[in-house]
Amino acid sequence: MEDKILYKIILASLLHDIGKVYERADIALDDTFISQNQELYQPFQQGYYSHKHVLYTVHFIEKFNDYLPDIFQKSREDLNFLINLAGKHHKPESPEEIIIHVADCLSSGFERRGYEKEIKAEKSAKEVPLMVIFEDISLTHNWKEALPESLKYYYNLGPLSPEAIFPINSEEKKIKVGRNVYRDLVSSFEESFKNLLHKESPLLWLNHLNSLLMHYLSFVPSATVERGEKTKFKKILSDVSLYDHLYFTSTIASALYIYHKETKTLDKISIEDHNREKFLFIEGNFYGIQNFIFATGGETNKNAAKLLRGRSFMVSILSELACELILEKLKLTRFSVLFNTAGKFLILAPNLDGYIDKLREAEDEINKWLYEHFYGETSIGIIYTTSKPIEFLENTGYENLLKRLGRQSEEKKYQKFDLYKFGGYPEDYFVKFSGASPCKLCGKRPATKKLKDFEVCEICLDQVNLGEKLVKRDLLVVYNKNEPNTLSKVLYFDRYRISLSLIEDVVFKKIPIKNVIVIWDISLPINKTVNINRDNSRFFLARKFINAYVPRDEDSKPLTFEELSNKAIKKKEDKAYGIKALGILKMDVDNLGTIFAKGIRPEKRTFSRYLVLSRYLDLFFSYYLPYLCAQKYPSVYNVFTGGDDLFMVGPWNVILEFAEEVSKKFREYTCKNPAFTISAGYLLTKPILPIQEMTECVENSLKRTKERGKNGITVFGVYVNWREFYELKEIKKQMKDWYEKEILNRAHLYKLNYILNMVETSQKLMEEQENLMKKQGENAFFDKIYKNLKTFTWPSKLYYFTVRNIAKTGFKNREERIKKVEDILVTLKKALDKHGGGFRIPLWQIIYETRRASHEEN
């Protein structure tokens, strides 16, 4: 049964500060309207009415009430209730209004204590851009001076777009902000608001509204306290967006309302009591994701691309549906979900009797289904901890919460299944194989379905179908089990069905919503809003960034891994050069746990910033990188990207370029802050290599990067940091230029590879000198040097082979050739001395890229 008051509290929370945007846009309010509403909604302090933005909030709801679902404005009483909920958050009277007031304060965090009164500042709010949370993070407690002028990175004011998520250096460019920019934002927002779909279903409509707010308010600062030239951070904290503040307020308000309603304590004293354990934080983690995605079978490689695409998407779906099941068990809405990315979600629920038992039921129900379908390959771990509102207001509250969840999460990793319930094998496992052979794709489940010319299981067929349709469909619909006609034939968790469709189908009402739970626009961020030519209107749907970019051919057909490897071949003068091979890339952010736990300045450690940091990191991976591939790297296939990591496949040479681009873009995205680094592992392979082996090899490559110093990449078995990687790219350009001008020949390249081995051995011996002499004595060290003495002659070998192999023609005279030989020798000697084994990266790239393709084995 719908709780209409809960829905109104959610909507009022989402809109309670919308007036700030209008106030900063200098939208005029009628004098009569002001005089009639000032006393009702604005606090009166120090001789004047403060918090004028609440009047704009009230005006917005009254102006657009016809565009709200009926439950919010069916009667004048309903509308007034909603208006008062949203407008009285600084002057609350009813219990529901007090709930939103408290949620607003808790969402803002402890920095709002002592600043309930407005503080006059020298700079107008409309001229203050949103600060970038990444800039003021430190792993060494070396934060910048706590003054606004110490920071230089801000976001341009405007709607969400792949370009807009990158901060602007205010010392280099003027920040886009001010009254006119706010007015443009208001105009676009209103147009989209009027066309929100599904007014007949309040929860669907609220989901659409939430994404609309994210789109338009992600770069609007939330702070009500304006800054002066010398105002310290504790007075101005505009590094949390208005959207994040509104959403977190709705989450807290939902939990508070349900808690006080169910405990029959809907009174002022109880609501404002911050020392009761009113909240329950619930964290869910999916285990075995990598094994799930990269499981192999006899026919896996033939269907690798679409299968990986479908499996990766299914991981996201399973995480969303597991979260949905918990919400259903606890009778919560999706506005209780703080985040759900990369197989991990966090829910803020009320701490009510019976909820722990329901959580255990949910965990068992989810794991039972996973066990029956994946035989222990993947599972979910649910942990929880209670919390008091006071923790939102203490500077140690956020840190203590993370510690509690972290400890439980570590313990849960070692008990992924309840062995008393799920030990052994499923009872009907062998019965299911009666008359059925193992699935050709996973090799685990009975093959009961047909896929082209071989038999597969229902799960793998679903994964292949999803993988095929994902490149053609841009809408995900989740149904309850009563919906008969869906793309997916699997009944997830015995409750849900999913289907992929087109956005235009929902716009033109071709999708009945009778059994619909949620609808998501999963299109890539190439088109930021949905433009359907119907009465020149623009429609906006709830967004979910869980789709991936897929390379296609001229007929829009997805490329296979074999076809991707062919794109590494380049033609020149009717001749083909290069090798047919794939590049596999895995990257993830370094030290993320430490960043969340200790990276934020102590006086700024709030739950809001934790959520902002999580969401903005995810935006880079799940929102921006697919866009980057579509725009600049159309042959790079996104297996998965989200949270804080990525897994990509593409032509071996293009993937190396892509890795460099990601490292540079991530540095730009995080304000060039040394606290944020990213590590990568790379593998060059033939497309026939089994998927599981590809995964293990690239995982080992990434592991090597982490062990050798992070903040870099391992290529061809060699770790280099990113600065070295960029330098080696310049060396490659120079060497390739010499080769293409026929100054260097292939024999010289292969001799350089021989010399490189000598360099590596000699450098390794010298690195081991101190340790060897300490453990085995001086004689042992010199004995080892003597046995490998030849390796120290590499400079003379370099000189000999270079002089011998440099072209003797093409120069004006002998002196010019001698000068070129000297230049090449100096360049190569410096490169080998400085980079050692790292020199293999440019050298092997040139050898592979310049190889005649006719020499390649097919």
TrEMBL record:
SUPFAM superfamilies: HD-domain/PDEase-like (SSF109604). Pfam families: Cas10-Cmr2_palm2, Csm1_B. It comes from the Bacteria. One of its GO terms (biological process) is defense response to virus. One of its GO terms (molecular function) is ATP binding. Keywords: Antiviral defense, ATP-binding, Endonuclease, Exonuclease, Hydrolase, Nuclease, Nucleotide-binding, Transferase. Residues 580-718 form the GGDEF domain. Belongs to the CRISPR-associated Cas10/Csm1 family. This is CRISPR system single-strand-specific deoxyribonuclease Cas10/Csm1 (subtype III-A). It comes from Desulfofervidus auxilii.
